């Protein structure tokens, strides 16, 4: 009986009986979704590949900079710079200490000059008791004159508060300050020669 019917009609009847149109439509939608998914996946992969290449280039640049920095670093030069800076630091510290000592000395000298000025003002134009003392003790006046001459030459003396003796000489020349202690074992010629050399 089947052979008596048209094969095409039989196939069409079977297809209509199974109702595969909805399945075909679903398969078409699935195919379209897969195509979109592949397109999106390709786009993501392309973006990530571009970012990866960019990061690779940055890494190469950083590696080159690091290599250049390492090759240009000289440990010997660095140590030399550190030593030079330390030397400069100690030199500045010594200069600051010398300036503090000089400031204290000049402050003491200023106080002494203020006291002398006050005495002179109190004595008046005639000189008062101080003039009488100078006339009575000319050797003291000679000592004061010598001290003034030494001071003009850049030399000064410090008085020991305990004994009242002049036990240390101060030399000032070109901004430098030097100190010389008094030693009774040395003769007068030794100090004369040293003073002359300092001048």
From TrEMBL:
Its main location: cytoplasm. One of its GO terms (molecular function) is microtubule binding. It comes from the Eukaryota. It is found in: Cytoplasm, Cytoskeleton, Microtubule organizing center; Nucleus; Chromosome, Centromere, Kinetochore. The keyword Coiled coil applies. Transmembrane segments: none annotated. GO terms for cellular component: microtubule organizing center; Ndc80 complex; nucleus. One of its GO terms (biological process) is chromosome segregation. Keywords: Cell cycle, Cell division, Centromere, Chromosome, Coiled coil, Kinetochore, Mitosis, Nucleus. Acts as a component of the essential kinetochore-associated NDC80 complex, which is required for chromosome segregation and spindle checkpoint activity. Belongs to the SPC24 family. Component of the NDC80 complex. This is Kinetochore protein Spc24.
């Amino acid at each position: 009986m089947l052979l008596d019917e048209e094969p095409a009609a039989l196939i069409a009847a079977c297809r209509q009986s199974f109702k595969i149109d909805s399945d075909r439509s679903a398969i078409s939608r699935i195919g379209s979704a897969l195509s979109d998914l592949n397109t999106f996946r390709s786009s993501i992969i392309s973006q990530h590949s571009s970012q990866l290449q960019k990061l690779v280039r940055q890494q190469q640049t950083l590696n080159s900079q690091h290599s250049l920095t390492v090759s240009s670093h000289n440990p010997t030069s660095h140590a030399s710079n550190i030593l030079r800076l330390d030397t400069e630091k100690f030199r500045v510290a010594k200069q600051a200490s010398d300036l503090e000592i000089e400031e204290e000395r000049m402050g003491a000298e200023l106080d002494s000059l203020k006291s002398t000025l006050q005495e002179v003002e109190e004595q008046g134009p005639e000189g008062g008791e101080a003039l009488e003392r100078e006339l009575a003790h000319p050797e003291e006046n000679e000592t004061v004159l010598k001290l003034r001459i030494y001071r003009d030459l850049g030399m000064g003396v410090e008085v020991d508060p305990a004994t009242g003796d002049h036990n240390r000489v101060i030399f000032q020349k070109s901004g430098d300050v030097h100190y010389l202690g008094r030693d009774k074992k040395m003769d007068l010629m030794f100090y004369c020669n040293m003073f002359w050399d300092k001048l």
